[in-house]
Amino acid sequence: MVLGLADGFSMLGDSVPQYINSKVKELEALGQKVYNFSVGEPDFSLFPEVRDAGILALRENFAKYTPAAGIEELRVKIAEKLTKENGILCSAADVIVTSGAKQAIYNALYAVVNSGEEVLIPSPYWTSYAAQVHLCRAQPVFAKTDDFVIKADLLELSITPKTKILILNSPNNPTGTVISKSELKRIADLVLSHDIYVMADEIYERFVYEDEHYSLASLNDEIRDRTITINGFSKTYAMTGLRLGYATAPKEIIKMMNRIQSQTTLHPSSISQKMGVAALSVPLRNILPFVQEYKKRRDFVVRRLNEMNLDCCKPQGAFFVFPSIESLGISSQSCSTTLLEHGIATAPGIAFGSDHHIRLSYATSMAQIEEGLENMEKVL
Ligand code: PLP
Fold first, then answer.
1. CA-closest candidate to residue 202, choices 182, 225, 184, 221
2. Which residues contact 336 (CB under 8 A, 6 or more apart)?
3. Any ligand 1 atom below 6 A from CB of 203
4. CB of 202 closer than 6 A to ligand 1?
5. At what angle do helices 366-379 and 284-307 cross, to 10 degrees?
6. Can you tell me the distance from the alpha carbon of 174 to that of 358, in angstroms, rounded to the nearest whole number?
7. Tens of each residue's pLDDT in the chain, 380 residues
8. What is the dihedral sign for C-alpha 254, 273, 204, 129?
9. Whose CA is nearest to atom 5 of ligand 1?
10. In angstroms, rounded to a whole number, what is the distance separating the alpha carbons of residues 42 and 279?
11. Which atom of ligand 1 has the smallest separation from the CA of 233?
C-alpha cells in the first residue's frame, strides 16, 4: 500500500538536530562522554516563578480542556507584550497559543499555502521550514543570501507567480544573522509590491548581542496586515519541553489557524499555559544575565573555531555558530559523523541548506564548550 506522503517522504526525514540529540542520549546511556553542541536548547533552569505557577496549576487541578486558541489570560498577556515590546498593535483575539512555535508555523503554513504553491525561504534556513512546506504539499524555494545576510534584492530573484509566502527568521537559526531595520523596510516593500504574505519567526528575539531586533509587523499597518509573527517560550524562558508558542496574524489567518488547531491538537497543555502567564511577568532584567553569558560563549567559540582554521563569522544573535568546513574537503555529514564518533555532537550543515558548514549550539556550559572544542581541535 502506498502511504500518503510516499512521494515527499525522502524530503521530509526526521529533524536532524533532534535525531543527533537522540544519538547523544543513546551514547550517554552507554556511558560515553559526549560534548553536545547539536541542539538549540537553553541550558539554564526554569525561572522559579514559572515553575511555581505550574505547581500551583496542578494543585488547583487546572487540568481540563481550554479554549482552542488558548486561555484568555495568556492571550491578553501576549497581546500586551506584542503591542508594548514589539510595536505590533494587537488584541487577545488576534493571538493563538500553540504547542511550541513549531506548531504555530505549521498551522500558519497549512492555513495560507495551497498544494503546488511556493514558499520562499532564505538559505541557510531552519530545517523544519522546508519539511513543513512539504507536509503542506507545497514547494520550498531557497533564496540566496549574501554571506548569510538576508537581502530584499536577492529574495526578489526567486519570487515567481506561484510564491505565496516568504519565511523570515531573525535572529537566524543556524547563522545567527539579524536583519537590520533598513533591510526589513526593503523586504516589507518587496512583500507588498508582490502581494505575498510573510512569516516572521522571532523566537530568538531576546538573544541579540550587537544590533537590535525589530519586528517586521511593527513597521506599518500595510505590512502588519500581511505578516504572521511567530514566537514562543522555549528559548527566552528555557521552556523547550513545555511546548508553548504563539502567533499573531491578520484576522482571517488567525481564524483558519484556530480551526486547524481545534481539529488537531486542540490546544497546548493547560499547565504550560499557566506557566506562560507567569513567564510573561518575568522582568527583562532577569533574562539579561543569560544573554550576557551567551555573548561571552559566542565570543569564545568564534575565536576558537577561527584558531582551528574553520572560517566562522561572528553571529549577532541566537545561540549558534555556522563555521565553514570547506578547508577540510569533506561533506558536512561526514564531518558531523566523524566528530560524533569522537564524542562531539554537531549538526551537519546540509540539513540547513549548506554542505560546506556545520552548526554548533553554544547553549551549553563554558566548561563543556572549552573541553569540547579542545577535543574537536585534536580530531580535526
Ligand atoms: N523557529 C526556530 C528558528 C527554531 O530554531 C525553533 C526551535 O529550535 C523553533 C522555531 C521552534 O521552537 P519551539 O517549537 O520549541 O517553540
1. 184
2. 20, 345, 346, 347, 348, 358
3. yes
4. no
5. 20
6. 9
7. 666 554 544 555 667 777 888 888 888 999 999 999 998 899 999 999 999 999 999 999 999 999 999 999 999 999 999 999 999 999 999 999 999 999 999 999 999 999 999 999 999 999 999 999 999 999 999 999 999 999 999 999 999 999 999 999 999 999 999 999 999 999 999 999 999 999 999 999 999 998 899 999 999 999 999 999 999 999 999 999 999 999 999 999 999 999 999 999 999 999 999 999 999 999 999 999 999 999 999 999 999 999 999 999 999 999 999 999 999 999 999 999 999 999 999 999 999 999 999 999 999 999 999 999 999 999 99
8. negative
9. 173
10. 15
11. 16
**Residue written as grid cell 514559572:** 50
Residue 225 to residue 292: CA distance in whole angstroms: 35
d(CA 340, CA 23): 9
Beta carbon of 352 within 6 Å of any ligand 1 atom: no
Distance of CA 88 to the CA centre of its chain: 20
C-alpha cell at 46: 526554569
User: Could you tell me if the CB of 240 is within 6 A of ligand 1?
Assistant: yes
For residue 171, whether the previous peptide bond is cis, meaning omega lies within 30 degrees of 0, is yes
